[in-house]
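Let us practice reading a record.
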Amino acid sequence: MVECKIKIDKEEYVKQFKPDLMDITVKWCNGATFKEICDLVPDVYEGTIIRAFRRLDELLQQMIEAAKIIGDKGLQATFEEALKSLKRGIVFAASLYL
C-alpha cells in the first residue's frame, strides 16, 4: 500500500483484525472437545465457531494447493498436518441429524 501511495493508518489497519477465536482454535487442534471450546467462550455462538473452523479448513486447503504449485513439499506437509489436526469431530460432521 505504501509503494502504491495509498494512504493508510497502520494502527487502524491492525485494529480491524480480531484474533478472538485464535486461542480456541489452538485448543481444538490440540484435542479439546467441542464442549470445552464452547465453555471457554460462552458469549460466542456455536455456529460462529463452526463457521470459523470451516473457513480455516477452506483456507488451509487452498494453501496446500498453493504449496504444491510452487513445489514446496515442506510447506505443503505443514499445512496438511494443520488440516489434519483441525478437521475432526462434530464440527466437520456431514449432518447433525443422525
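A brief commentary: The radius of gyration is 17 Å.
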